[in-house]
Amino acid sequence: MSHALTFEWADGRTARVDARPDETVVEAAERESVALPFGCLTGACATCTARLLDGHVAYRRPPRGLKPDQREAGYVLACVAEPRSDCRLRVGVDVHRELVDNPWK
Ligand code: FES
To answer: Keywords in UniProt for this one (predicted)?
Structure first.
């Protein structure tokens, strides 16, 4: 069964895609040509971090890039998260910026 994913960006843009069974959030977005940030695609770098506003996901691989308190706060790694229900997610680089202090600034 597929699940509807609604993406929300900080600038007010939104997009909707359908995720097929066993497809991750990033895979569904890429298939539908919706650009989300990602890097390693293995759950390690956290570049793909999104905030789950509604719905449930299950992890294909351990989300090593997130600390337990970040997961509890609703952050998810979109590259390894498979939707288990319709989901609404806040996406974009702003979400990642909330998690880490940029050492280059
Ligand atoms: S792209 Fe690296 S954790 Fe998702």
So the answer is: 2Fe-2S, Electron transport, Iron, Iron-sulfur, Metal-binding, Transport
